[in-house]
Amino acid sequence: METMKLHEQQILSEAEMERMRLDLSSQVQDRAFARQVAAVPEEEWRRTGNNLKRPRGEVSSYRFRVYVKGLVDKLGMTGGMGVAICDQDDGLVFEISKGLNAKEHEGNTELVELKALIEGLHIAVAVDLKKIKIVSDNPLLYQYFKLHQGVLPKCPHENCKSKLKLDTCKKFLTSELFNIMSQSVKESSIPAEEKIYCPYPRCSTLFSKAELQGSKGNSAGVTKQLDADMSFAINVEQNGETRSQPALVLSGTNIISSMTGIDIK
């Protein structure tokens, strides 16, 4: 009986997501048609207005902004989060807000901000949005994203454009964030033609050819062992011949696992 109820709830949830997707698609197309009509000159409207047709297309083909926000009151008693989805002209097409009890928010604003981000991503996936831009005013999320993009954080003082050095950042960053920053700086220094990405589908770890091949002329292969949990082969030119050589790589999935709670093998 319990299994049947869970199955029914899943069906209802999937039906609700499909309804939301169709409703969102309809709103986007209606707004696009309204803009098209408004852009037609009056004289042309008199001649060809009856020939205008409502644009059709999948909602996944449009670009959206997903605004996320989480809040906790000063006393740490109540909290809430909100998600708003806007089209490319910043017209609101969907919004949702949720209250959080003390157990859910734990009096931690950063936690609620992350919950809001996760909720926004879940909704975007559920309604089949393919092109989105996340908008948040949370500085921690912003800096975390910049670290993953290989951009060093700047001095927090107003009008100061100095970039922080790695050694300086180590004094106040957690070991995880410092490792992310170090890896990002290292990756940004690799020339485009030397970049090799891990072949594992769920891993985006980047290495240089020199790092994987070892020192020049060494027939033994990799001279420096990496902290590896998988291997693959790369083509190496030696003495005018091209051969396949094993290369050890770090999968990098431990970061994904710690962020999502998903055990990635």
From TrEMBL:
What sections of the protein cross the membrane? none
For this chain's UniProt record, which GO biological process terms are given?
protein ubiquitination
**Which Pfam families does this entry report, sorted A to Z?**
RVT_3
Q: Which GO terms describe its molecular function?
A: nucleic acid binding; RNA-DNA hybrid ribonuclease activity; ubiquitin-protein transferase activity
Q: Which domain of life is it from?
A: Eukaryota
- Ranges where the RNase H type-1 domain occurs: 77-145
PANTHER family this protein is in?
Answer: RBR FAMILY RING FINGER AND IBR DOMAIN-CONTAINING (PTHR11685)
UniProt name for this protein: RNase H type-1 domain-containing protein
Organism of provenance? Sesamum calycinum
Q: What is the lineage of its organism?
A: Eukaryota, Viridiplantae, Streptophyta, Embryophyta, Tracheophyta
